[in-house]
Design a protein that fits this description.
Heat Shock Protein 90, about 230 residues, alpha+beta, 6-stranded antiparallel β-sheet, 5 helices, globular, 6 strands
Length: about 230
């Protein structure tokens, strides 16, 4: 469940017209993510999408029930501008991130789009690397009245859920110190692996992170004011 430190490379121009991204340039055999976009101001749901997890409670290490950070009063709730599915272990990160980055740049002011771009990259990278290969990863770009954010959900084993919960508690307590600690660990190495990705989201991008757990389904959201 630990994200790796990545600086997203420059990606080729992405289509922001709602079409499905094409195959990966690396091999051409990766399945293209399934993408759905909706016009600004319309509902993102059509009755067939998984319902967002909206139950609230304190972040904890347990995997049972539903937990989310109390820092912003609960989980990220709003209309879905983009809904995208892909598979854990696939090579979808770069061209999927390019699509989300282009869409956010087109719809939000520059500073907000950049923050969402960092959040989308790190959350999706985490899910692709450590999510269960037996279930889909769901990525959504969410808009509410005063809040925008990115939400990624995937299935994971209990040990990784507990590790993620503990890491988010540290980030909520002291984002800067946690970022510096993980940065040092990324240089010195060791086990467990450094968890720098989410620290970047919280400290560098200044996004508020929330965690929601329902059985083995983990939903992490990163949000900010518009």
């Amino acid at each position: 469940m630990s994200p790796f430190d990545r600086n997203p490379p420059r990606s080729p121009p992405a289509r922001a017209d709602g079409a499905r991204p094409g195959p990966s340039a690396a091999g051409g055999n990766e399945p293209a993510p399934r993408v759905k976009t909706v016009p600004f101001g319309s509902s993102g749901g059509n009755g067939n999408d998984p319902a967002p997890r909206t139950k609230t409670g304190p972040v904890g290490g347990g995997g049972g029930g539903s937990n989310s950070s109390p820092r912003d009063g609960g989980a990220l709730v709003g209309r879905s501008l983009v809904t995208l599915y892909c598979n854990a272990g696939s090579g979808a990160l770069e061209y999927t991130h390019a699509f989300i980055n282009a869409y956010a740049t087109d719809h939000f002011r520059g500073a907000v789009a950049q923050r969402l771009s960092v959040g989308a990259y790190e959350l999706l990278s985490n899910a692709l690397n450590f999510g269960s290969v037996s279930s889909d990863i769901l990525l959504e770009l969410i808009e509410a009245e005063n809040i925008v954010g990115v939400r990624v959900s995937n299935e994971a084993i209990q040990a990784r859920i507990s590790m993620l919960s503990e890491h988010l508690l540290k980030l909520h307590s002291n984002p800067e110190q946690t970022f510096l600690d993980e940065l040092r660990r990324s240089v010195t190495g060791g086990i467990p692996r450094p968890m720098l990705g989410l620290a970047r989201v919280a400290h560098e991008a200044g996004l508020t992170l929330t965690l929601n757990v329902q059985d083995r389904r983990v939903t992490v959201a990163a949000q900010c004011r518009r």
